[in-house]
Amino acid sequence: LHLAALRAAFSVLLAVAACSDEEEAAPSQTAATTISPATSGTAATVPADWATFTDPTGSYSFRYPTGWSLETFEGAPQTRIASFTLADWHGDYPSDGLLLDIGRYPPGQAPPPPQRPPDAVDTTVDGQSAWVSKGNLPTGGGDGEWKSLDILVVVHGGVSYEFFAAFGEQEPDRTVLIEIIASFKFSDKPG
Question: How far is CA 184 from CA 40, 60, 62, in A?
Answer without folding.
Answer: 16, 7, 4
